[in-house]
Give the backbone structure.
Amino acid sequence: MTPVWLLALALALQAPLTFKASTEVVRVDVLVMRGGRPASGLRLEDFEVRENGVRRNVETLGTDANTPIDMLLLFDGSASVRGARQQLLLEAASAAMKGLRPTDRAGLLLFSHEIRRLTKFTSDWDSVIGALKASVPSGSTSLGDSLVAASLAFDRTEARRLVFLFTDGADTSSFLQDYQVIEALARGNVLVYSFTLDEETGGAPGPLLKAATEVTGGRAVTEKNPKKLAAVFREALEEVRARYLLSYTPDANTAPGWRRLEVKVKGGGRISARKGYAR
């Protein structure tokens, strides 16, 4: 049965887009890679942000030291994730949460033919692992619907909103279309990192995962060796900690609508950041 909130969201996405004008601060989560590694030591004046081609005055620069993380584990709970695969996820989740700090929080959302929020955001890591351990994988895979649910799950504005998504199969039962999922993610302010195993993906993430990570400024990760999944999760969290969180105040008299974002940095590098935001 399709949840009522998904039906309402689908109808909203099919209607003409409307946006609420606001002077709220715009936050842009940025990863700068140089020589295959995250660039460190960058300062506020090193960054340039343009909104619809117009340069904006970046007011603050958040770093790992002053930006807490809310990490949502968005895990495939379908029938294909049983036995050894479920144990790998337990180990990966444990590895990721060992990298969290007292100011950080974690939550757990499982998806199959239905979406189950097993824990709210908490600093009690053991409760998250316990909920995952007690879960019984079953059903099909509603990947797209779960991404939208994840984007709506966060409740702390000052934290970095991080989604760690794992799936071992293609979307087989989502109600929403891919374009609706990407549009919902584009409107949100979440950072999506997806994880798949090479044996399922053939060496590359599917188009939905690729688009979801690109539009949010995250990354799609594939791993050939299932036993290395925990290390991949841990390394990804370290990468997130190396990101920069920029913020600025948009013009109050700017017309509502989609605002395209472009980020540049002195000295160059490969930059990952969300593509825009809605007003």
Notes: Helices lie at 4-14, 84-98, 125-134, 143-151, 178-187, 198-201, 207-216, 229-241.
